[in-house]
Amino acid sequence: QGQLVESGGGLVQAGGPLRLSCAASGLTFSVYAMGWFRQAPGKERELVAAITSGGRTNYADSVKGRFTISRDNAKNTVYLQMNSLKPEDTAVYYCAADYGGLGTRRGASYDFWGQGTQVTVSS
């Protein structure tokens, strides 16, 4: 049974950086597309960024140019580097794994989810 564990969340000032990590276990990490989703209070969950097994990436328009997703298959870990953070980036961030996926925005396509990590950006 696959498990995903996020880390790296916290409180940061607007304009600052933060890097999230998601360590995977119990699954063949290299064949999974990985996604970072977020959910703010009162809002729907949305895909922030995704990366396929082949390294192709896609991003939400709201984070393009500020966030970078990457993966290290040797460490079974996916990262989300977040720069120039804004208060509207405040949310719980989740990583998710989609077997053989293409980095879809559809959350239901993902097979495994982490427990989430809180990111709070102060103005």
Describe the structure.
The structure is a single chain. The protein is mainly β. The protein contains no helices and eleven strands. The strands form two sheets. Strands 2, 4, 5, 6, 9, 10 and 11 form a seven-stranded mixed β-sheet that branches.
What does this entry show, briefly?
The mean pLDDT is 97.
Task: Spell out the key features of this protein.
123 residues, mainly beta, seven-stranded mixed sheet, four-stranded antiparallel sheet, 0% helix, globular
How does the SSE layout of this entry go?
Elements: E1 3-7, E2 10-13, E3 18-25, E4 32-39, E5 46-51, E6 57-59, E7 67-72, E8 77-82, E9 91-99, E10 112-113, E11 117-122
Parallel strand pairs: 2-11
Antiparallel strand pairs: 1-3, 3-8, 4-5, 4-9, 5-6, 7-8, 9-10, 9-11
Which ranges are low-confidence, i.e. pLDDT below 50, for 5 or more consecutive residues?
none
Mean pLDDT: 97
Compute the gyration radius: what is it?
13 Å
The profile of the biggest β sheet is:
7 strands, mixed
The count of strands amounts to: 11
Query: How far apart are the termini?
Result: 40 Å
Structural class: mainly beta
Describe the global form: globular
Element string (H = helix, E = strand): EEEEEEEEEEE
Q: Report helical residue fraction.
A: under 10%
β-strand percent reads: over 45%
Query: Tally the helices: what do you get?
Result: 0
